[in-house]
Amino acid sequence: MIRSTSRTLVRDLRRHVGETVSVRGWATTLRRQSRMQFVVVRDHTGTAQITHRRRGAGDAVEAALESLTAESAVRITGTVVDNPVVKLGGLELVPHEVEVLNRAEAPLPIDDRTGIEQRLDRRFLDVRRRPEAGLLFAVQTTLEQGMREFAYAAGATEMHTPKLMGAASESGADVFALDYFDRSAYLAQSPQFFKQMAIAAGIDKVFEVGPVFRAEPSFTSRHATEFTGVDVELAWIDGVEDVMSFEERMLAHALAKVAEAHGDAVAERFGTDIAVPETPFPRMTMAEAQEVLRRGGWDPEGAKEDLDPEGERRLAAHVEEETGHEFVFVTHYPATIRPFYHMRSAERPDLTLGFDLLWKGLEITTGAQREHRHDVLLEQAAEKGLGTGPLRDYLDCFRYGCPPHGGFGMGLARVLMVLLGLDSIREAVFLFRGPHRLTP
Amino acid sequence: MIRSTSRTLVRDLRRHVGETVSVRGWATTLRRQSRMQFVVVRDHTGTAQITHRRRGAGDAVEAALESLTAESAVRITGTVVDNPVVKLGGLELVPHEVEVLNRAEAPLPIDDRTGIEQRLDRRFLDVRRRPEAGLLFAVQTTLEQGMREFAYAAGATEMHTPKLMGAASESGADVFALDYFDRSAYLAQSPQFFKQMAIAAGIDKVFEVGPVFRAEPSFTSRHATEFTGVDVELAWIDGVEDVMSFEERMLAHALAKVAEAHGDAVAERFGTDIAVPETPFPRMTMAEAQEVLRRGGWDPEGAKEDLDPEGERRLAAHVEEETGHEFVFVTHYPATIRPFYHMRSAERPDLTLGFDLLWKGLEITTGAQREHRHDVLLEQAAEKGLGTGPLRDYLDCFRYGCPPHGGFGMGLARVLMVLLGLDSIREAVFLFRGPHRLTP
């Protein structure tokens, strides 16, 4: 039974020099010498040294410290002593009582040399042992908070739209299907249709953070079968520029908040400086982007209309060289490679009012003005070979006064990847899901 | 093509008397008389009257207003005129230009007499036509913001855990299964296991808002197959009291915020006063609750250990009479009706440290201190007849120093139901999902 002495966080120990406090955390480094015992305890705010002089037989503290295994959960009550010799903040805790709340088995199944797949198998230990992993989730929290702050101030409403759909959304490809009582259901590949329904329902600006499912057998460092999407949809826009403007200001606001709260810690743990981007971000049409790339010798097979990852990286390098900016909106994607619901340019009906946002060469967003005219939408669906049956409920929204609107979807983990300089999306989420990974 | 005159919201018209502004919204009431045309325009902030004196042939404004159908999306530019005779805020807009951005088909498929199922079929029109429905989502936004504010201030981290699982969670009953490449996956019935993994990963306090899936063929007014759960998990607790204390303070904070932002509007639209609850909430053991109920004559078949909805309502009425409080924590649920991972009472191993929170007689939360001792957890799983194979990854977390912890899950729509006095959960979400409803 744990007694109710209140907990002191490691980061606050300095304020309690000379006092008796109770620290809760995990035993890490264990150095047990003949006369002294040293244990480092870690909580989510830092690490502290426990120093105990052995008193021999009947010394309960000595026995408890001796029994400790690495990563055991402990509660240590003792006196905070100022000791400039101690590396961890010039402080040590001299224990009066050591309670082992949960003893860890030894040896641990992972260590500092364990590869990523084995680390992911024991993700709880992987995250706990590496303070930078914990920092990632603190950054995620602040990033979302910053995006919400901006969106709420702009009048957005937080929506939670269903992930279960009665018909396969969009194209029907890459959709997970499931048995739903006596019929089939499908997992939403994005909240796309539902956030547009919310616009048709008179919600002025939609903000949603939620899971997105893709039955795509992709094994790249930036794909997952389930990821967290940040979705925004804006009603009554004058054009796609309103959407890009909203996104760049939302990102700049959120990144400023992250830089302020975690800039130093991110620099220390990840070696990355968080540069708060200036707005507006550079914009470039797809045609311009391709011209720039081809001038630079980029001409891959099968990427004549879209950019491939290599093209995205080269383009970002070019833009950063020209403008000093890490972001670039690529606009006016060809209609052939965009979904039927992207609005077409009035002047160039072969082009859409759709865009991608690249950050340091990684696509973090797809967005567009949507086609809100029922007849045009029907034509564009037919042109893509889509039957209107499964789209009936969606198309209905456009028959009764759906206003002009547009929006974007952002991959949260991709933003974190770029922000923290991570090599793989597997490290940017708590529990990764891919074609070969459904556990833990 | 929409011109870029900036938009004025209806609620701000009073500030623009005498000026030319542009309003965007939906045409509602259309009264076209021989000399005058009156149209009410609604946006998400209110309704305004458009008043036009017919000028006859060549009057483009007259023609546009004449062509309008109810719920058409319009953009109206005109002069704001102070007119005390007008019911809608003593203001009217005298139009210079009327643009029909999207004409609604007539007649509309739903009207004021349409029943709930047909309204749900056209939920976008249902929500758009009823300002109280839009208010619900504004309340939801503020409620979540209030909960997040409290949780962040308490040091919580926002997590997004997977909804795809490799094994059926918890009991295996009521789980949706899907084909996942070459094997099966299951939809998470709650983030329970994953939020506990986050605790084992050293995340001190977990906060998650996300979808929860239940393959339950329930047709009550309070069940859904997919709903939004608000989940909290707290590490290093001294006992289950810490969990209840966190929840009641979080709710009180969030409800105070909702009352401040929307109290008047909720009273007007829903006829409900938002009472900010005092903390602590009343607490009562299940044994006490049953005694109270049996004294009052409640003794239903098949509800000897748990409370049925009727019992919950009666209990709430009793508590409100005794204490004046709308909330009550029912604690010490019998182990037989709680999951294996609820910690048992040390004194009474037949009882758990699990609780429910009732608000006005509706269960809005289940919570507990969790069993964090690996050996005890194994025993309790075996006692419930659970094989440890599918639980392997979960049980692993308890082998390497998992701290004492506990938490709760709250149904967001249930909170909104009680808060706004709604009869059915179908009205408390944007797009309801039940055994017979997968659309729109």
Automatic annotation (TrEMBL), chains A, B:
Signal peptide: none
Binding site for ATP: 214-216, 363, 411-414
PROSITE patterns xref list: AA_TRNA_LIGASE_II
Binding of L-aspartate, residues: 170, 214, 366, 370
Key word Heme present: no
Molecular function GO labels: aspartate-tRNA(Asn) ligase activity
Subcellular location: Cytoplasm
InterPro entries: Aa-tRNA-synt_II, aa-tRNA-synth_II, aa-tRNA-synth_II/BPL/LPL, Asp-tRNA_synthase_2, Asp/Asn-tRNA-synth_IIb, NA-bd_OB-fold, NA-bd_OB_tRNA
Region (Aspartate): 192-195
Residue ranges annotated for the Aminoacyl-transfer RNA synthetases class-II family profile domain, each copy included: 137-440
Keywords: Aminoacyl-tRNA synthetase, ATP-binding, Cytoplasm, Ligase, Nucleotide-binding, Protein biosynthesis
Catalyzed reactions: tRNA(Asp) + L-aspartate + ATP = L-aspartyl-tRNA(Asp) + AMP + diphosphate
Known EC number: 6.1.1.12
EC top class named in words: ligase
Function field: Catalyzes the attachment of L-aspartate to tRNA(Asp) in a two-step reaction: L-aspartate is first activated by ATP to form Asp-AMP and then transferred to the acceptor end of tRNA(Asp).
Homology family: Belongs to the class-II aminoacyl-tRNA synthetase family. Type 2 subfamily.
Subunit structure: Homodimer.
Protein name as catalogued: Aspartate--tRNA ligase
Organism in which the protein naturally occurs: Nocardiopsis changdeensis
Origin organism lineage: Bacteria, Bacillati, Actinomycetota, Actinomycetes, Streptosporangiales
Chain's gene name: aspS
